[in-house]
Structure formats: C-alpha cells, structure tokens
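Limitations

Structures in this collection are predictions, not experimental determinations, and the ligand pose is part of the prediction. Treat each record accordingly. The example that follows, with flavin mononucleotide as the small molecule, is included so readers can see exactly what is and is not provided: the inputs are given verbatim, and the output is the predicted complex.
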Amino acid sequence: MKHDNVPTRGMSLAAALCDIEYPVFQAGMAGISGPALAAAVSNAGGLGHLGGLRLPPLALRKWIRETRALTDKPFGVNIVPSFGGPEVFEAQFRVILEEKPRVVSLFYGDFAEMIPRAKAAGITVIVQVGSVALARQAIAWGADIVVAQGAEGGGHLNQGTIGVSSLVPAFVEIAEGRPVLAAGGITNRADVRAMLEVGAAGVWAGTAFVAATESLAHDLYKQKIVEATIDDTEYRTGYSFGWPFGTPHRVIPNRKKWNLVKYVGGGARVIDKPEMAEKLSLYAGQGVGKIHSVAPARERVAELVAGFSSWQVGDTASTLQALPVAA
Ligand SMILES: Cc1cc2nc3c(=O)[nH]c(=O)nc-3n(C[C@H](O)[C@H](O)[C@H](O)COP(=O)(O)O)c2cc1C
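Predicted complex:
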C-alpha cells in the first residue's frame, strides 16, 4: 500500500507503520468499539481499533476474526490491564500475539516486558499517555507511536491535566522521530489542522466514533453526545467501575446518583437496558459540542481526512512536523 496521501514524512511514517492510507486512528473503546466499527474505520482508510478491555480471551479472538471477515485492511486491538488481573491480561496479550493484528495499543500500565514481545511478532505498538514523563517511559519501552492524550479527552485519562495542544509539541521534542498522535476533543477537519500545526503526525479520536452508526453504544448515549455542548462534560477523579479509585476520567454526568457497581461496560452499550444510558455517567470528551448527528464511521473518517488534505507543510513557520524523523 502506498502512503503518499499525507503531506509530511511524519504522517507518512505513522501511516506506513500501520499500513493505512491516512493517520486517522479510532481509539479502542471498551464495550463500544467492536468489529463493525473497527472494520468501517479501516475500510475508510483509517485505523479501526477493537476495545479489548474486559473481553475474555476467547471473545477477543472471536472479535479479531469477525473483524477480519469484515475488512481486509489493517486494524488494531486495544488492551488495558486495569481489569481482570495480570493472568487475564497476559492471556489477552497471547491471543494478540497469535492473531497478529497490525497494531496493538496499550494504556494505563507497565508494558516494559510486553512491548518487545509484540514487536518481535511484527506488531506495531502504540502507547497512549498524558505527560512527558510517561511518554519518555513509553519510548524507553520501545513504543513505535505515542499518543498524546490531552485533558479534553473522553473516558479514562492517563494523567489528564494537560491540554492536547501543549502536550503534542512537548512529545514531539522527546519522541526521537517517532510519530506523535493527538487525542482529546478531536472531531472535525479544523481540529486536525490545529493538531498538525502543533506537530502531530496523526489524530486519535474516541467520542466522535462513539456517535457513529456502527458503534456499540446505546442509542440514548449517542443521542446524549449529539445534544451535549462543550459545557456538559465533567472531569472526575472518583470511582469508576473496574479502575483504581482516583483514576481521572471525563464524562457527561448522569442525572441521578446511581450504584456504579452495576456498571459492566465502558458507557452504556446497545445491549444494556435504557435505564443504564439514562442513569450512568457517559464517557465523552470536550469535542461533544461539535458532533451534531450520529453518522456512519466512514463519514467521520472523511471529515478528519479533510483536515489532512487541506493542510500543507509550511503553512506556518512554526510547524514542528518539519523536524527530521528517524529513518
Ligand atoms: C467511551 C470511551 C471509552 C474508552 N475506552 C478506552 C479503552 O478501553 N482503552 C483506551 O486506551 N482508551 C479508551 N478511551 C480513551 C481514548 O483512547 C481516547 O483517549 C479519547 O477518546 C480521546 O478523546 P475524545 O474522546 O475526546 O476523542 C475511551 C474513550 C471513550 C470516549
């Protein structure tokens, strides 16, 4: 596959490492991004991602195979060690080593031992973090691509105190030529152009794809995202199901206090009762105010891709993307 649809070497490198047309990445989202969404994003030229968190290893294998039946394009699998204990996480990881999706993305843990194993299996490794100290660590472990997760982002945040437009250039400075992806509040072409200006090699979007036709989110959850304004998300550090107490996360708050022990997924899913979507806090980032409808994933990808096509190297003198990248 050629990777000449993107205007700079950094973006080309990001696309080449994942064998995709455009460096538009759909975030892996537990319970929300399944085979239909991942395949739709990959078929549109981006990188779709399965949300593997909380999936038993057998189910994860099934999802990977189902995705392969829906697309012949590369896709990624996201796993997070915060649930189920180290044995389950290792079993999930072994499924990935055996099934060999093009990409594995890792979040919220110590991956020093895993990353070399994934790379030895020929799998590109992406790690998402929200501070320079954590990015340095991910690079030392051997991450191929680093995602700068800004405080604007929806769902759980690995730090969550720094805005994405400050985080991206700080990561570019220490990334030693590795592509840096921007995450947090990215929903449209203008967001993409802004991120390219500060040095991102690509974008990583979650909330915009929750409100995609193919996502496994409950219809009421999708509707909440469509109706929400930028004022409606809240940064929280209290309890959230399956995560260490205090893990920061961004949500559209629920209407009533509710016992979250009942909570079994990442935001209310299509298989959940409507009351889940009505009462649970729903993971969402600050880009909600720019999402005005539920749309097929290919339209979301096309909107983000338009940000790349309408941006040229040298648009501003300060463009960090012009920095040399490692061969
Ligand atoms: C509903 C939802 C579920 C998420 N689940 C995961 C997950 O399982 N693993 C992960 O690495 N990140 C997860 N995230 C965080 C995303 O990777 C990403 O940081 C975030 O979506 C970016 O901000 P945005 O939502 O404003 O685009 C989730 C985000 C959302 C909105």
